[in-house]
Amino acid sequence: MEVSKLISIPIGKFHIVFNQEVVVQWAIMISLTILMIWATRNLKKVPDRKQTAVEYFYTTIKNLVDSNMGEAYESYIPIFGTLAAFLLVMNLLGLIGIKPPTQNYSIALGLALCSFLLIHGNAIKKLGFVHYLLGYGKPFAVMLPINIMERAVFPISLSLRLFGNMMAATVVIDLVYSALGNFAIGAPVPVHLYFDVFDGALQTVVFLMLTMIQVKVLPEH
Predict the structure, then answer these.
(1) Distances (CA, A) of 216 to 51, 62, 69
(2) Transmembrane residues, as ranges (predicted)?
């Protein structure tokens, strides 16, 4: 896969390359930070439209956390809210003609590794490091290799699921535009609605749900 280099900073014999996906990610992070600071300023007892939208988003994430993890995990709402907003915006970028960064496997793998660290960091916090390590030998010591493999494979499967779906959506949309040629104006709207909006939102929910379930389940085994 060809990488589009937007910025290359030479440091001796090495070059630090910032490709399109990296630049887009940073633009999204900065934009979301500014948006959240603006959206949470001057909160009122009687919410206006801006505050209503913020409260709706918070309630949606809270309900997901409560239903999948329980009220004991409500302290994780900011983490999953941030992840949901970041993933959803990246997945919806196809609507404005920018390829979603998540169709790059390195981006999907980076997000999956963040989930991996969250899952195992929570398990160590709940169980303690010694009991966390002992968990790899349950229910029987002979299960040690299988348990290690199962936990090591999780970020790979999580990233491949996200990457595969977003890459497939990007390829299909490109093929539709190539096939329609000059007749593409307006015609691909249903394609964008399905592959960008529906599939992008669905992959965000799946990524969140799988991470939530693992954060909840791992300390219990």
Answers:
(1) 30, 15, 6
(2) 21-39, 76-98, 105-123, 160-180, 200-218
Question: pLDDT, tens digit, for every residue of 24-45?
Answer: 888 999 999 999 999 888 888 8
Residue 206: which of 108, 94, 120 has the closest Cα?
108
pTM: 0.84
Q: Which 8-state DSSP code applies to residue 91? A: H
Q: Which residue type does 72 have?
A: A
Q: Which helix (H) or strand (E) holds 8?
A: strand 5-11
Q: What is the pLDDT of residue 162?
A: 94
pLDDT-derived band at 141, boundaries 50, 70, 90: confident
Short-list 76, 82, 88, 99, CA closest to 19: 99
| 3-state SS, one letter per residue, for 123-135 | HHHHHCHHHHHHH
Task: Specify which residues 141 forms β-bridges with.
Answer: none
Q: Which residue has the higher pLDDT, 182 or 107?
A: 107
What single string gives the DSSP state of each residue in 33-71? HHHHHHHTSS--SS--HHHHHHHHHHHHHHHHHHHHT-G
- Cα 181 from Cα 191, distance rounded (Å): 15
176-181: list long-range contacts, CB under 8 Å, 24+ apart. Answer: none
